[in-house]
Design brief:
- It is a single chain.
- By secondary structure, the protein is α/β, with parallel strands linked by helices.
- Among the domains are: about 40 residues, no CATH class; about 210 residues, Dna Topoisomerase Vi A Subunit, Chain: A, domain 2; about 180 residues, Rossmann fold, CATH 3.40.50.300.
- Helix content is about 30%, strand content about 15%.
- The chain contains 20 helices and 22 strands.
- Strands 17-16-18-19-15-20-21-22 form an eight-stranded mixed β-sheet, with helices on both faces.
- Helix 9 links the parallel strand 10 and strand 11.
- The longest helix has 19 residues.
- It is elongated.
- InterPro entries: DNA_helicase_DnaB-like_C (IPR007694), P-loop_NTPase (IPR027417), TOPRIM_DnaG/twinkle (IPR034154), TOPRIM_dom (IPR006171), Twinkle-like (IPR027032).
- GO terms for molecular function: 5'-3' DNA helicase activity; ATP binding; single-stranded DNA binding.
- It holds the Pfam family DnaB_C.
- This is Twinkle-like protein, chloroplastic/mitochondrial-like isoform X1.
């Protein structure tokens, strides 16, 4: 908070004199010393407008000295000060100032929060110059108690003028006696026995009961159970503590009052909280008690800790031999929060974890055995986010039938026994960490790869037998294609796409920025229909495609290709292209993406980033897209200017920009055409396969293809 929020600097007096204390102004002066201020002493505030006044860490109130120009003994008799003193001392919330200690200067922590674990000096108190009003604020975010009070005009105590906001929470001290808890009755002991919880476990965990409601309320409950019992004749069963109405009615028969199970929460042998559960499965806890984990003392100094979702599951774990188990006190959230984990003082929903954080310091393995439903899975994720995924494990509940699984530990104990529950814990798996995997997570895929049931284990044939031993198209890979201008790179890729569509029905997204749409459509139609789009020159007997063939070809174009084009004047970025390609994959099911060429993209980068670094990041994005969407990407990149070129095929290292083009690609291909009749046929296209990462689907080598534009 700055001075402009509290005390504007133009209103501050530059010097203090006795007249300021008789003035009715509402200027505030921090209480810093019990000594009178000299008349000529300069007055100033810190830039935030506050001075911090400490308060005691002990329970007995200590004095707050007031600053004034009169004698301390005389000031204590001023009616306004006496009234203000009484207000500040009201209910023991603030420090009192008294006549016998006005001369002393005391520094203390806030008595309501004691300054937290560090004993922070956190309470600021402000008293007006005329002594008529005071305000206070505890700067600890976890406390934040603030308020305002003023003296009545006649100097009498006026509690109605006391304002308290965000009153510091006082933790109650509770005992078994103060809560009027009782040992479990035979009926409740029998209820636990039906759920496979022994009397020894109940006694060790101090499970008790509490009378809940009077005889009239108890009678109403019996009437309700009687009604539900009658309904069961029609197949209706009520959900009362997991019992049918008949079982619940029989359990309560003969009891003179309504009772609730009391789960007592202990910390180092001291009762901290108590949670109740009645026969209607209502839960409630004692007010103004500290939230901690249930069974906390059982995990002190434990290296392995099990966390479950309910007290019954904690007891079930003990029956299976696991005492190193705790339960959360407040159940599970409906879903995982999309926000970041808040700071400790703001993480109110999971404050019980922060209150017990020292118990997890020595734990190397935390097994999350929450319920198997969606809220239980959400709770496991929220716990893992706070405790650290690297040391968390998770359980898999066994199957109940072909469709359903058992929900929690108590269900497994009841239906399968303690040995099955032991197996669940013994077979716990590492909690998944995004980006960190084990081979076991991919065994199914490896088996499919071995048995060749994935579909494209050895890639897809290009349609040219001469290339089958060198290059095959595998989903999720990146192929870099280069070659000198007019060598036929784009023509070869278009022909390859037509072959793939004809052979396996693949669809494609085309980001071909050097071609007009109509020209690109003509080239693709000619390769698919194998007839010229226009009539050829004089003397040729090649027939032009008919209108019917054109219409059929147009439908083929629409079904097979999606166009990615930037229609405005700006250059498209690689991120923009990949976002549209992702939409094409999800909406149209394309299996291939062509980006042609590299130099038509926008390559703006920070001044501090080199072109090599930029190309590396760009290729990483493309490969990640290909792998995540199982989409093969062909990326056309021109070579740099070749000095003293003698007509030989360029190398992949000749690509303009960076050696990363060959380093990061899965396949590298150079398309080359001979232009010297004396060196060989000029109608052959040399496909130079210069890199194949996956040796199962190809090898390095050259293949020669004959090019005939109108081959029928």
């Amino acid at each position: 908070m700055t001075s402009k929020h509290f005390l504007p600097s133009p209103l501050l007096p530059q010097t203090l004199s006795p007249k300021h204390f008789s003035s009715p102004s509402k200027r505030l002066l921090p209480s810093l010393s019990s000594k009178p201020i000299p008349k000529n002493r300069s007055f100033s505030l810190s830039t935030n407008g506050f001075y911090s006044l400490p308060s005691p860490s002990v329970s007995s109130p200590s004095p707050v000295p007031l600053l004034g120009s009169c004698n301390p003994d005389d000031r204590s008799e001023i009616p306004e000060y006496k009234c203000l003193n009484q207000n500040l001392a009201f209910d023991g919330y603030l420090i009192v100032f008294r006549k016998d200690v006005l001369r002393n200067q005391a520094k203390h922590a806030h008595i309501m929060c004691n300054g937290g674990e560090s004993g922070e000096i956190s309470l600021s108190l402000f008293i007006s110059l005329d002594g008529y009003s005071a305000s206070w604020l505890c700067f600890r975010a976890k406390c934040g108690w603030k308020g305002y009070t003023k003296a009545a005009a006649d100097g009498k105590l006026s509690i109605g003028n006391l304002g308290r906001v965000n009153k510091a929470k006082v933790t109650r001290q509770i005992t078994v006696e103060s809560l009027e808890l009782e040992p479990l009755c035979n009926q409740l002991t029998a209820y636990f026995a039906e759920r496979m919880i022994s009397s020894e476990t109940l006694k060790r965990n101090a499970i008790m009961q509490k009378r809940s409601g009077d005889e009239e309320g108890f009678g109403e409950m019996l009437n309700y159970l009687d009604f539900m019992w009658q309904q069961e004749d029609h197949g209706l069963v009520s959900d009362l503590m997991g019992l049918t109405a008949t079982e619940a009615f029989g359990m309560l028969a003969g009891l003179p009052y309504l009772i609730a199970i009391a789960f007592t929460y202990w910390r180092k042998g001291e009762l901290v909280n108590c949670k109740y559960r009645d026969i209607t499965k209502r839960f409630w806890q004692e007010k103004d008690t500290k939230r901690i984990l249930y069974g906390l003392d059982d995990i002190e100094d434990a290296s392995d800790i099990i966390i479950v979702e309910g007290e019954m599951d904690k007891l079930a774990m003990e029956e299976a031999g696991f005492r190193n188990c705790v339960s959360v006190p407040d159940g599970a959230p409906p879903s995982v929060s999309e926000k970041e984990v808040p700071a400790e003082e703001q993480d109110t929903k999971y404050q019980y974890l922060w209150n017990c954080k020292e118990y997890f310091q020595k734990a190397s393995r935390i097994i999350l055995a929450t319920d198997g439903d969606l809220p239980g899975q959400a709770l496991a994720e929220e716990l893992a986010r706070r405790l650290g995924r690297e040391r968390c494990w998770r359980v898999k509940w066994p199957k109940k039938n072909d469709v359903d699984h058992f929900k929690d530990a108590n269900e497994v104990l009841m239906y399968l026994g303690p040995s099955a529950l032991q197996d669940v814990i013994d077979n716990a798996e590492l909690y998944p960490i995004r980006g960190l995997f084990n081979f076991s997570s991919f065994f199914d895929e490896i088996d499919q790869y071995y048995h060749r049931t994935l579909g494209y284990e050895f890639g897809v044939s290009t349609g040219w037998r001469a290339l089958d031993d060198l290059y095959n198209v595998v989903p999720g890979e990146l192929t870099i294609v280069t070659g000198v201008p007019n060598s036929g790179k784009s023509e070869w890729i278009d022909a390859l796409l037509c072959n793939l569509n004809e052979g396996v029905g693949w669809k494609f997204a085309l980001c071909s920025m050097e071609n007009k749409v109509r020209d690109h459509a003509r080239k693709l139609l000619e390769k698919s229909i194998k007839k010229p789009f226009f009539g050829v020159g004089y003397g040729s007997n090649v027939e032009r495609m008919s209108v019917e063939e054109l219409e059929k070809g147009k439908k083929w174009l629409s079904d097979t290709f999606q166009l990615i084009r930037c229609e405005n004047d700006s250059l498209p970025s690689i991120q923009w292209v990949l976002e549209l390609a992702r939409a094409a994959v999800l909406r149209h099911g394309v299996q291939g993406l062509v980006i042609d060429p590299y130099n038509e993209l926008d390559h703006q980068r920070p001044v501090s980033q080199t072109e090599t670094e930029y190309v590396s990041q760009m290729l990483t994005k493309i490969k990640r897209f290909a792998q995540h969407h199982s989409c093969h990407v062909w990326f056309v990149a021109h070579p740099r200017q070749l000095h003293h070129w003698i007509g030989a095929p360029p190398n992949l290292y000749d690509i303009s920009g960076s050696a990363h083009f060959i380093n990061k690609c899965d396949n590298g291909i150079v398309i080359h055409r001979n232009r010297d009749p004396q060196a060989g046929p000029v109608d052959l296209v040399q496909v130079c396969v210069r890199k194949v990462r996956n040796k199962v689907v190809g090898n390095i080598g050259d293949a020669f293809l004959s090019y005939d534009r109108y081959m029928t």
